Automatic annotation (TrEMBL):
This is carbonic anhydrase. It comes from the Eukaryota. One of its GO terms (cellular component) is plasma membrane. Its EC number is 4.2.1.1. SMART domains: Carb_anhydrase. Residues 1-24 form the signal peptide. PROSITE patterns: ALPHA_CA_2. Residues 28-291 form the Alpha-carbonic anhydrase domain. It catalyses: hydrogencarbonate + H(+) = CO2 + H2O. The chain crosses the membrane at residues 302-320. Belongs to the alpha-carbonic anhydrase family.
Length: 321
């Protein structure tokens, strides 16, 4: 069987099971434009002073070099199952850890605790020049991925954490990754790209081939921006510590177009496009630029070893010549 046939085989039951859950038709309480658009989102979405996303202005940033490196636990291991869902707003991936005890976590890097991965999703534009939620010096990227984590000291899921934390600023940690257009396909995105056509419509769920989360991150995870903000959709809770990686991940226009083909709605089917919230006032919040390159024991011992390897290599070369 080729990969596609296998995928179809594995997923037939899943698709059948998910059909009764199709949410298309139900009236949504919010949208990205129109009379349910961001300017009409309720509660703290409008009244809050620490809302996300923001524009990151590099001239106003505080540089910090004294954090421990960000530690990504199990980001390099694939889980047993990865599900992808079209929820009418985005493509959302959940990683099943029920059988193996696999769970990805982040800590260090100035985070006040250990945060467990819950899901990831994407925000993209209808055309170039827009798509990302966070912007850098006023410039948008064509897509942004967000990895959602909850503080394990408040419980064992995002829902319990949100209930228990009393809206404290350290409840959730979101990691944002910008995507940048390249002429070549990014092969590491293929497990996701290939399955997008099976979740074309609102409410459809499917399984993707397995891959580690690391495949979706930039090579450099030591350089990032950090600020206190909120969830970027209602209910906009101001409980999120944001980590926005400086280095972006590559995507081709053909791959991006697969995201733009997803649809929502039942009777009047529309494409999911421009599913990003506009930027919000910073309101004097500090934004930090963190670079932990060379900080901490692992990083320095690795560079010491590679230095030594290099010296031995140069010596050998000289001896041979
Ligand atoms: C976030 O807010 C908390 C509580 O007000 C504060 O202690 C912390 O320094 C802030 N962190 C950042 C990155 O601004």
């Amino acid at each position: 069987m080729n990969i596609l046939a296998k995928l179809v085989f594995v997923n037939v039951l899943l698709v059948l099971a998910s059909i009764p859950n199709v949410t298309g038709g139900a009236t949504p309480i919010w949208r990205y434009k129109g009379d349910q658009g961001p300017e009409y989102w309720p509660g703290v979405c409008t009244t809050g002073k620490r809302q996300s996303p923001i524009n990151i202005e590099r001239t106003k940033i505080r540089k910090t070099f004294d954090y421990e490196p960000l530690v990504l636990v199990n980001y390099d291991r694939a889980p047993k199952k990865i599900a992808i869902l079209n929820n009418g707003f985005t493509a959302k991936l959940t990683f099943d850890n029920s059988e193996t005890g696999w769970s990805a976590k982040i800590q260090g890097g100035g985070l006040p605790g250990t945060y467990q991965f819950e899901y990831l999703d994407f925000h993209w534009g209808s055309k170039l020049g827009q798509g990302s939620e966070h912007t850098l010096d006023g410039i948008s990227y064509p897509m942004e991925m967000q990895l959602v984590h909850f503080n394990t000291k408040y419980g064992d899921s995002m829902t319990t954490a949100l209930e228990k934390s009393r809206n404290w600023y350290d409840t959730l940690a979101f990691v944002a990754v910008w995507f940048q257009l390249r002429s070549e396909d990014n092969p590491k995105l293929e497990p996701i790209i290939k399955t997008l056509e099976f979740i074309q419509n609102d409410g459809l769920k499917f399984q993707t081939p397995l891959f580690p989360l690391m495949d979706l991150l930039p090579e450099n995870t030591e350089h990032y921006f950090r600020y206190n903000g909120s969830m970027t959709r209602p209910t906009c809770n101001e409980v999120v510590l944001w980590t926005v990686f400086r280095e972006s991940v590559d995507i081709s226009i053909a791959q991006l177009k697969k995201f733009r083909q997803l649809t929502f709605g039942n009777k009047r089917i529309k494409r999911i496009l421009d599913n990003f919230r506009p930027i919000n006032d910073l309101n004097n919040r500090p934004v930090y630029e963190i670079d932990t390159y060379g900080v901490g024991s692992t990083a320095s011992s690795i560079s010491a070893i590679s230095c030594l390897t290099y010296l031995v290599f140069v010596l050998l070369l000289k001896l041979l010549m």
